[in-house]
Design brief:
The chain is mainly alpha-helical. Helices cover about 75% and strands about 0% of the residues. It has a single domain, classed as Orthogonal Bundle (Farnesyl Diphosphate Synthase). It is built from twelve helices and no strands. It is a multi-pass membrane protein.
Length: about 280
């Protein structure tokens, strides 16, 4: 059992759970819009998410002095900096090959290039400005995350499918991503402060952030639950999935005596729930 826990821990430190969650998110929107997404596109999304997250973690770990890191994720990336950097370069090249040479992904060349350019520029600005713009990190990360998982389904969907149902779920998914990131910022507040990293806590107190998390979690969960009965039955399962993810986040947020890394791993794992759509 300890062996499997160690493997799971390493996968979490490498953000593999985030990658799988993003793939599940794209499945969610492809099912919502009734479009088929080929394996190459899922591979491309996984590569893009892993490269972006890994670069962000590498930049964070580079800012810290050796032996003075505060979170296991920072320690891991600092210790394995060269290996992970090499892997990032290899996977970035692989992603470019998939984008250019697989027929199913060619439709994403222009929108994908635009999105990646915006992401690169924005996170460069965040790292450049440091604490001054750090309060935007959670919101901007949520925007990029949802834009990434929606990109292929959006590009391949018929125009009439991009209706108010789609946009409602896209907004709810954005707020769920925000909820996830805000909880992580809340629990890592002391470590981030000591390491000199900024977050939304640069513009509000921890108690105010707790109130925001509670209100946001309740609203997302409640609205998603009500949509089960308000929207056509086709969307009932999609609404139920979002409601369950939202409620699970609230339950984990209020759970006492749990290690921070355990909470992080369980919250990231909740975004795998859309994979249930594969059996319905």
């Amino acid at each position: 059992m300890e062996y499997f826990r160690a493997i799971f821990s390493k996968l979490n430190l490498l953000s593999v759970d985030v990658v799988l969650g993003a793939m599940a998110g794209m499945l969610f929107f492809s099912d919502l819009l009734d479009v088929y997404i080929g394996p190459a596109v899922y591979l491309l999304l996984g590569i893009a998410v892993w490269v972006v997250y890994s670069i962000d973690h590498l930049l964070d770990s580079k800012k810290l002095k050796k032996g003075n890191t505060y979170l296991p994720r920072h320690q891991f990336h600092q210790k394995n900096f060269k290996r992970i950097f090499s892997a990032v370069a290899i996977f970035a090249l692989l992603g470019l090959i998939v984008l250019l040479f697989f027929e199913s992904s060619k439709i994403l060349i222009v929108p994908g290039a635009v999105l990646m350019s915006v992401v690169a520029l924005w996170f460069f600005i965040l790292h450049l400005t440091g604490l001054r713009a750090s309060w935007l990190k959670e919101v901007s990360t949520a925007v990029v995350y949802v834009a990434g998982i929606c990109l292929a389904p959006f590009a391949m969907a018929e125009a009439e499918k991009l209706n108010h149902y789609f946009w409602t779920f896209a907004v709810l998914y954005f707020f769920l991503a925000c909820l996830n990131l805000l909880i992580l910022s809340f629990q890592d507040a002391e470590e981030d402060r000591d390491a000199g990293f900024g977050s939304i806590l640069t513009v509000m107190s921890k108690m105010q952030l707790k109130n925001v998390i509670v209100v946001l979690g309740i609203l997302v969960s409640l609205v998603s639950f009500l949509l089960i009965f308000i929207f056509p039955s086709y969307y009932s399962l999609h609404a139920a999935i979002l409601a369950l993810i939202g409620m699970y986040h609230l339950l984990e947020f209020f759970k006492k005596g749990q290690k921070k890394e355990t909470t992080r791993a369980k919250l990231e794992a909740s975004f795998l729930l859309p994979f249930v759509l594969l059996v319905f």
